[in-house]
Design brief:
about 400 residues; alpha/beta; 11 strands; about 45% helix; disordered N terminus
Length: about 400
């Protein structure tokens, strides 16, 4: 979502995109190139310090990984290697910005798939050395958490829920590099669990789902399903903390699939007649689990005085945040607790160069984490977010008041 600036004169013949670019150069605004390669998206974007996107490009590997049944790191690495040069060039050309005009280059260096992070980092370091530009290493999860600030003035502190195919966590954002970790997944992420169930259900064979991800297929089919036809036990009901777990739920669903295959007399890989109902029941249980942990995080932060009394906010981002059923479930929680719920547009919830460029802009403004093009930088496949206070959350043992999580269609 771009923030538009007004024309100086109505009769200018340049279109708004070219005008913004020209205006930015004329005013000497600082410009950041953002590069993202942490998983299966090769993204790049050029942004000015007010958050205006001057040019962007994105190459998605989704179709390739759908055919292979999941992300294979070596294949993802090769696709990044083949496309990163073109993607960055397209973003630069669309911005009408030359490398000499850049103020810095920001690149995801943690966390993510090692082979993929390496491609982005190697390209970026060569780029900044060639053009002698400052380098800003970016924490992928911090970038997701702060994307919403590009769209509207969200002040610190605020609560953050990040849910995706690779991550699931709750944190309090107190600054651009100051986070308190309240809870995280103990095994796998919700997007990963839904993708695995979608593969087990062979949803790629479904006429509505052949070109979309597993999580998107679950959401789509769930719209026509009856979640009450199957009951899956919500994870961690006896644990009064904010951590997540999705592996056990995935196993419950797989056992149900095996049972239904036996009942219908079909081989694995055959679409079940009840596939919509299974999708609806799983999606509801995922949403229920996420909502309950988020509810507890809100109550913990309020009890500890960590959220402002005026306009406290929950920001939800990451690929799974695009799921509308999950958003509606979280809206019930925020309405009950007096928080504003903010979600970036779906396009900005998934991995992209825009969020990396914006995080670079925020760091450039505050002069934090800016390195020389001669500095040595390493990628980190595993990297915690902020200060871990999950033990304190668990010790508080907050029991949740009753809250009916019923979604009206």
């Amino acid at each position: 979502m771009h923030r538009e600036k007004p024309f100086l004169r109505a009769h200018l013949c340049l279109n708004s995109y070219l005008w913004k670019s020209a205006f930015t150069r004329a005013m000497g605004s600082r410009l950041v190139l953002g590069i993202e390669t942490s998983c299966d998206e090769t993204g790049a974007a050029v942004m000015d310090e007010t958050g205006v996107i001057l040019g962007e490009s994105l190459h998605s590997q989704k179709e390739v990984h759908l055919k292979t049944g999941g992300i294979i790191p070596t294949i993802a690495q090769q696709l990044h290697r083949e496309n990163i040069g073109r993607v960055v060039q397209e973003a630069m050309e669309r911005s009408s910005i030359s490398p000499s005009q850049l103020s810095a280059v920001a690149t995801t260096v943690k966390p993510g798939l090692a082979l993929c992070l390496g491609i982005g980092l190697d390209f970026s370091l060569s780029f900044v050395k060639k053009h002698q530009k400052p380098f800003i290493p970016i924490h992928h999860m911090e970038a997701h958490a702060l994307t919403v600030r590009m769209l509207q003035p969200v002040v610190f502190p605020f609560l953050v829920l990040l849910v995706s195919g690779g991550h699931s966590l709750l944190a309090l954002a107190r600054g651009i590099d100051d986070f308190l970790l309240l809870g995280q997944t103990l095994d796998e992420a919700p997007g990963d669990a839904m993708d695995k169930v979608a593969r087990r259900l062979s949803l790629i064979k479904h006429p509505k789902c052949s070109t979309i991800s597993g999580g998107q297929a679950i959401e789509l089919l769930a719209q026509d399903g009856d979640r009450l036809k199957f009951h899956f036990r919500p994870p961690m009901g006896a644990h009064y903390d904010c951590n997540f777990s999705f592996a056990g739920l995935r196993n419950q669903v797989k056992m149900t699939i095996q049972k239904k295959e036996a009942e219908e007399g079909v081989e694995p890989g055959t679409l079940l007649s009840c596939v919509n109902d299974i999708a609806a029941a799983m999606q509801h249980t995922v949403a229920f689990h996420i909502a309950k942990r988020t509810h507890r995080a809100i109550l913990f932060c309020k009890a500890q005085g960590l959220l402002p009394s005026f306009n406290p906010t929950l920001v939800v981002s990451g690929g799974v945040a695009s799921n509308q059923y999950i958003r509606k479930t979280l809206k019930i929680v925020t309405d009950a607790t007096g928080l504003d719920l903010l979600c970036p547009p779906s396009k900005l919830c998934t991995d992209n160069g825009v969020m990396i460029a914006w995080n670079g802009v925020e760091r450039l403004r505050e002069g934090k984490g800016i390195l020389s093009y001669t500095d040595v930088v390493h990628y980190e496949p595993k990297a915690p977010l902020g200060v871990d206070i999950t033990a304190e959350v668990e010790a508080a043992a907050i029991k949740l008041p009753p809250l009916k999580l019923k979604i009206m269609d």
